[in-house]
Amino acid sequence: MKSQTDVACVGIFVADTLGKPIKNIPAWRQLEMVESIELATGGCASNTGMVLAKLGLNVATLGKVGNDIFGDFILSSLQKSNIDISGMKRDDKLNTSFSFVMVAPDGERAFFHYVGANGSYCIDDVDFSIIENSRILHIGGSFVMPALDGKPTAEILRRAHEKGVMTCLDTVWNGEIDAFATLKPSLPYLDYFLPSIDEASLMTGQESPADIAKFFMDHGVKTIGLKMGGEGCYVANAKEHVHLPAFKTNVVDTCGAGDSFIGGFLAGVVKGFDIEQCARLGNATGSICASSMGSSTGAKSWDETIEYMNNAELLEVS
């Protein structure tokens, strides 16, 4: 019998080219020099899956790439991380999703993005046998998967719940859609919802973490976790809430830091941690990610991550 998967990560997979530092955008026909350009795997589902695998968990990924060199690169990278890619599909018409990431000297980023094969991934592509054999289903990249967003995502979550699979979801902000209306059908089926506070605030019209959390819990979410960058994170459910500070780190590149937070948080769930321990582990994996180039290249092993979490200095919560 096939061993149970700890986390099945469904969502977007992207080939990222990262240039740093981008200090100026050159005028047409002009040249601007950078110190480094790297090719790395990206996309919410990929990033979270890579971190979980590095932490020693049994991970499967489900999504779509093109039949091109970037698709080969992503699938090869996932396999090298001991991730089950049997649920990955390939598109013969659309190329692999691609981002050119401009990394500023302070680690913040701006993006040029091509949706590509992620845009054609639909519910018919989803291998539910993998999800049903998993402890947790995580959907990473909602709002930029047009064939899956809305009711299809809610249906996937509902079917997972019916089989006793815990569920989690994260979003990518898309100002061209009604984000809350798109998300609303999924909320009753979410055990964990882990957006950034900026995205959550825009969806709810609320500003304080407590008010945002209450809004989503009133709509059925069991546990809400807000990623707050340098302010750490806020996690709440019906019984408790915690606001934990971020760890001090030398920020190199914040790409994937939020996805890495989710990887750490879900690893804590698998290990049976309470929500405060899960949040602390998420802060640690997010901080580790931000200290190196790439969305998941800096991820550390379980023992290294726990050592970092127990010894790193904390920022003060304002």
Descriptive notes:
This protein is α/β, with parallel strands linked by helices. The protein has one domain (5-24, 35-309): 3-Layer(aba) Sandwich (UDP-N-acetylmuramoyl-L-alanine:D-glutamate ligase), CATH 3.40.1190. The chain has ten helices and 13 strands. The strands form two sheets. A nine-stranded mixed beta sheet has the order 5-4-1-8-9-10-11-12-13, sandwiched between helices. The chain has a four-stranded mixed beta sheet with strand order 3-2-6-7. Strand 12 (233-237) and strand 13 (241-244) form a beta hairpin. The protein is globular, with a radius of gyration of 18 Å. The termini are far apart.
Task: Give a quick precis of the structure.
With 318 residues, this protein is an alpha/beta fold. It has helices at residues 44-54, 69-80, 128-132, 151-162, 179-183, 197-204, 209-218, 257-270, 275-290, 302-311; strands spanning 5-11, 14-20, 36-42, 59-66, 84-91, 98-103, 109-114, 134-142, 166-171, 192-193, 223-227, 233-237, 241-244.
Please describe the topology of this protein:
Blueprint: E1 5-11, E2 14-20, E3 36-42, H1 44-54, E4 59-66, H2 69-80, E5 84-91, E6 98-103, E7 109-114, H3 128-132, E8 134-142, H4 151-162, E9 166-171, H5 179-183, E10 192-193, H6 197-204, H7 209-218, E11 223-227, E12 233-237, E13 241-244, H8 257-270, H9 275-290, H10 302-311
Parallel strand pairs: 1-4, 1-8, 2-6, 4-5, 8-9, 9-10, 10-11
Antiparallel strand pairs: 2-3, 6-7, 11-12, 12-13
Helix pairs in contact: 1-8, 6-7, 8-9, 9-10
